[in-house]
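Forgive a beginner's question, but would it be possible to get any protein sequence you like and the tokens describing how it folds?
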Amino acid sequence: MKFEEQVLYPIKFRPRLKETLWGGKTLGMSYGKKADETKNIGESWEISGLSGDSSIVSNGFLKGNTLEEIIEVYMGDLVGDGVYEKFGTEFPLLIKLIDARDTLSVQVHPDDELAAERHHAWGKTEMWYILEAADDSVIYTGFREKTSREEYLSHLSQKSINKLINASKASPGDVFFIPAGMVHAIGAGILLAEIQQTSDITYRIYDWDRVDSAGKARELHTELALDAINFDLTDTGKIRKEPEINESVVLAECDYFKTLQINLDTPLIKDYSLTDSFIIYVCTSSAAIIECFGKSERIEKGETILIPAAADHVTIIPVGEASLLEIYIPSQKK
């Protein structure tokens, strides 16, 4: 039987685990990721359409197929007509869980125009939702005040770039919105969910003078970063919204994605009949049953699920009191 003759359903994927210099053990111990206990896992790529890292379906009759392959078959029914028209078989978002045992490098991402010119790729605007944070953990985002290229380069040469950047205390439930061009870094002791454009372009500015086990420092991208940095960005990008029980609360919205939070203790029916986009749910606490097309799937804390755009209604049944991130693409402008 051909795929297109079968009814779609809530789709789950195998996470792609990434070992990093700064990663930890929490994704394996507390978020259900089957990680090698000897490795420090910094990232779990929950849904990815990046070439070479495309997510593989883990449930239902599509099991074993890549995300790119199923978009090729279902097109707008899977991702939304407007989304497919703009992106084709390239899935427009990358969803990650990140465990920062140590502080990440100070970095910046190019915008769409610069990324297209240099890399024939999309830029990277992203947001972080804090899941766990140590008492003294901070997020570095944006300059403390408008900064000149000369002042920036002076601090960089003196290894004092952190003195130019805002450091905000991070607590569970905090959101940080990071447009392309904003310098940023995740501080030690933080575990978060990241929603971003499909892009893996990062310009590393400063790596805290770290070296690997062989005594080698990671590559810096000083010249590439200069044209990508917006020296006028002084906002921290920090957002704090109080959840409302059994309602969706908007956390962040831009041209690339809209992210909401749902806290619920009773079944909730979501109407997506006017939403021309796939829906992603990331379970951030407890568990929930997700139903659409007459099919159901359970997601636990730390799991992610994709709802095809053809689903007009989705029922969410919490196990106890559950929390979810709800993510989709805003209507595409013609």
Remarks:
- The first strand starts at residue 11 and ends at 12.
- Residues 247-328 form a domain with the Jelly Rolls fold (CATH 2.60.120.10).
- The chain has seven helices and 20 strands.
- The helical segments are 26-30, 67-74, 76-79, 81-87, 112-119, 149-157, 222-228.
